[in-house]
Amino acid sequence: MPDVQAKARVRPLDELDIGSIVRIDERITGRYRPELWEQRVGYYLRRDPDSSQVVELDGKVVGFMLGDVRAGEFGLEEPSGWVERFGIDPDFRGRDLGTLLFGALAAHFKEAGITTIRTLVDQQDAGVAGFLSALGFSPSTLQALEMRVTK
Amino acid sequence: MKVEHTTLPKKYHDAVEHWRRHWLPDYGTLITDWDKYFPQDDAFCLCAKMEVGTSDMIQIGDQTGEKKRLKPDQLTEDQAKHLLAIIRAQASTEFGSIQQHAGTLHRAADDEDRFWVLRVMAEELRHGYQMFHLLLTEDWTHVSGGVKGETMVEEILSMQTGSHVLDAFNVEYDSFIDNICFAALIDRVGKYQLTMQKVCAYKPMADSMPPMLREEAFHLAAGVIPLRRWAQRAAKGDPLITMQVVQKSINKWFPRALEMFGDERGGDKNIHFGFKDMKNREAQDHYLAEVTRMIRDINSRYLRARFPGYTPDKVELVLDQIERSRGKHEGVAWDDLLHVPDRRFFRRKGEPAWQMVGTLGETFADADEYVRYLAKALPEAYLTTKDLRSYSETLHKVAAGELSVTDAIMSMPKLKRVGGTCPCSRSVRWVQEEETAAPAVTTNGS
């Protein structure tokens, strides 16, 4: 939908986007979690405010993608660009807004000298897994493992 | 993005550290507990940071397309004088805000809020250090009246609340609410100034801006996030924080923030000289729109806390309805929400200076009546300050025709350094400004 993309504006996240992110998250998950997003946005803004991105349509934030450059995660000493949280308002999906957001984030990572971008995905979430695959992500030799711990 | 880090010569670095021991005594705690509150963040560095790879060409003004200037003597004399004033004003604001924050930092009820402000203070110290780097690495004596960098640094480090270049940095905090509102409102002006100066025709200034801006983003969050949380607490009936108390602090700082942009009719020189890419009124308009967005965001948080069952769309609808009608919704009155004061409210500089206008745009004809109105609109602890008393006295003179608006703008008392060799000298006293001309520079921010 090129007409929609033409009106879309991708820009770095700022502190006034918290309310919009809370709203998008609530529309996706059904949970109202302002405290969580206040913490997360505070985190990304103090780490690297140029990294995380939001997309606006007609001045309204309808999507976000949060990430930063980090080294030392899981023994990965090489600095990597981590894509950690993203969401598109369900009313505005299917319009390549996620691709626009990722493009801006990836450009920032490249500018920072990053050669690998990493993320984690729940393979049971076919929508997200498909989106990441379409962006060019492929399975890594690193595998996420977990163990249940009983009290 | 690539950033080069440099430190000042030892003598100056030590002077800043010395100053820091007076005004930022919790610095050690910040460094010790850094990982607790800011895990994974790079350690704080008291140094100058210069962005590498920025444009070499002048992007705006009379010299557009020419190579950016690398030394003050490559600027015209007028340009160099003007830029020097900007740098000195900027440095003053950075150190000034630390002094203001220090007064009420310990009154924070929440440890995280306190540590966030503490980090803001440390980063403002770094921003002041950055400006010293600009003052000290090149020779400005041809436009400073022979005053050397060393003396300029001493002068700035000697300033206290009351003697800083811009009014916003001469007003003391009354409570920790001021720490937060200051970060949300005054630091936001700083963001605009830094953003505008990214194009600066003097390359060392332009290269200083991106690292400062990245730090400033967190400063704004350190204001807005606590305000959002306080709105939620107020909505839930916490007697210790109310929207009215927050509104009074906004009323106190917002007029000073607008004045930091400089007179609404000015700013041409900055454009011609290639130092900034917006005139004063244009930048102020953008700022006003952003503050409006911030207030709406906080009000939405308040309403959602009052009505947890409402959807986000319903909250927006109710907010629109209350703002339009100035009425009530299920027990929430228009007065229970925050508002952006009229841009002419409580102004002492700029186009509407010394007009008697209320937060809603209502006008007053009598100075006594207006001061009584201010006493209700401003924080209680602020009412007994020297700043407000001076304002009231001057307002009465303007209203009586005993003082022109121009003279009134210059008549507010300021602290001046009167001696002492220690860079952090507290040897100051109250004196009246002698100049009557409008200051060359009225912009900048922390």
Task: Round the mean pLDDT of chain B to the nearest integer and report it.
Answer: 91
DSSP strand tally of chain B: 6
Strand order of the largest sheet of chain B: 1-2
- Tally of contiguous helical segments of chain B: 15
Beta-strand segment tally of chain A: 5
Rg of chain B (CA only): 22 Å
Please compute the radius of gyration of chain A using only Cα atoms: 16 Å
CATH topology of chain A: Aminopeptidase
Indicate the percent of residues in helices of chain B.
Answer: 40-55%
Shape of chain B: globular
Question: What is the CATH topology assignment of chain B?
Answer: Ribonucleotide Reductase, subunit A
The CATH class assignment of chain A is Alpha Beta
Q: What is the CATH superfamily classification of chain A? A: Gcn5-related N-acetyltransferase (GNAT)
Span between N and C termini of chain B? Answer: 23 Å
Note poorly predicted spans of chain B.
Answer: 415-446
Please characterize this protein's 3D structure.
- The complex is a heterodimer of chains A (151) and B (446).
- By secondary structure, chain A is α+β, with helices and mostly antiparallel strands.
- Chain A contains five helices and five strands, in the order H-E-H-H-E-E-E-H-E-H.
- Chain A has helices at 2-7, 18-29, 34-47, 97-111, 126-135; strands at 8-12, 53-57, 60-70, 80-88, 117-118.
- A five-stranded mixed sheet of chain A has the order 1-2-3-4-5, sandwiched between helices.
- Chain A is globular, with a radius of gyration of 16 Å.
- Chain B is globular, with a radius of gyration of 22 Å.
- Chain B has 446 residues and is mainly alpha-helical.
- In chain B, 53% of the residues lie in helices and 5% in strands.
- Chain B has a two-stranded antiparallel ribbon with strand order 1-2.
- Chain B has helices at 10-23, 27-32, 34-37, 77-104, 111-137, 149-158, 176-196, 203-235, 243-259, 268-273, 280-306, 312-325, 367-377, 386-399, 405-410, and strands at residues 2-6, 48-52, 328-329, 332-333, 414-417, 428-431.
- Chain B has a single domain (1-446), classed as Ribonucleotide Reductase, subunit A.
